[in-house]
Amino acid sequence: MELLETRQKEIVGFASEKNIVLDKRAIEILEGADFRKIIEEWRIENPNAFVLESKDIEAKINAQKAPLFEQKTVVETKVFRADARGMQKKVRFLSEYDVTGQSNSEGTVKNFLALFQKKFDLLSEMLKKRHTLQPKQISKLRAVPKNSQVDVIGMVFKKWVTKNGHLAFQLEDKEASCIAMIMKTEQNLLKIGELVLPDNVIGVKGVKFGEEMIIIKEILMPDLPLRKVKTIPEEVSIASTSDLHVGSKLFLEKKFYEFLEWINGRIDSEKEREKVSKIKYLVISGDNVDGLGIYPTQFNDLNIKDIGKQYEGFCHLMKEIPEYIEVFIIPGQHDAVRWADPKPAVPKEFTKELETYSNIHFLGSPTWLEIEGFKTLIYHGDCLHDLIGHASTLDSSRPSEAMVELLKKRDLMPSYGMSHPYVPEKKDFMVIKEEPDLVYIGDMHHNNYAEYRGARVINSGTWQAQTAYQVKLGHTPTPGIVPIVELNTGKIIETKFIKTEGE
Ligand SMILES: [Fe+2]
Prior knowledge:
Number of domains: 3
Distance between the termini: 36 Å
Shape: globular
CATH topology of the largest domain: Purple Acid Phosphatase, chain A, domain 2
Structural class: alpha/beta
Bound molecules: fe (ii) ion
């Protein structure tokens, strides 16, 4: 009796160290199990939850019977026939916007100059379409009388705060440059100015102040036109996910298997089966594996220490996705491609196993396609770190808001020379040339959605538990949440495989 009480105390003590409360039945079940392993795993999967219930422990004990990447124990509930199985796929790849097979940069100064000139041409053309802007060439500024209104388009060469606290920009077009300044009293304009980074192409409406100086009254971005969220009559959906990090000790493999069971319709809930039945497309926004040598101490954080084997594991999981679902997979910084943007698709040598799976498509980042007529941009999200790091109004837990700022800039290379590198390709792959209806991103491990001028922005979360690095940054990820865009309603609905705080 005493021994039993000691073990119960040990269980309760261990749980309370992890900030977890157990009910009576839960303690009883844990007495006969490896309670430390179960509690520790549950804490990783449920970083914000407080009460560990007996049903969760039972589910965990059952799940632990399955070994790594070999789970095939399928319990057929009712016969499931998805509506999407009978639907024709409607996909058009806009391959001209994908660097895969088109990388021809020599990395020369000439390449860089050409890239910046191309970017200026593309973005200034978009700005010229803004009817409120009547831009003059900067070289003609001298001829404009002092104190009169003047508009210009320029690329930001330099940005600084003056001795008197005003925010100044040196703007350049192809021939000349000028100084444009936001006065320190203009609070609203300063907030917009904070989001303008060196290398951005902007339109300025202002008043001529000095020989080559403008006081800014309004900043215009290339921007998207005003549009409504697009819908179609067909009841068809796109599911999305991201950042699996296969190979990491923190990859939530068992939870991912629950996702695979779900997407195959092997679930009891009629409501969920109905939801799954409409899924015809799946977008995966990068960091498919954890990679090797991504950061100095990564080796200790890996379950699979061989990049080839990490991809074998990833491919094994992808094979479980029903063949009637079209899957679009792009790389992230952890994949076996270059760190710099634009990134080509994961090389075929790593995805050989999926060669015969015609529904699975490996694409670059960024990439563009049309799904059921929805212009879709898929991008891992690498450059968002630089933007978020330079703007007090943005936060890595709301990556979709940062993405909206990139849509306003119409540019996935907001600034060159900050922490994220770019390859100066002869063709510009980073300017957002099209007007997207759907924008999929990943990278921040945080589910988050936004809508801007008819574009739905979706950050699809992760399957990796909170990393030590994220703990240090105070960043809480949202693993195991899968968003679905219903193309007939325009709504985004979620299925949660891991509960969040308060649920
Ligand atoms: Fe990631």
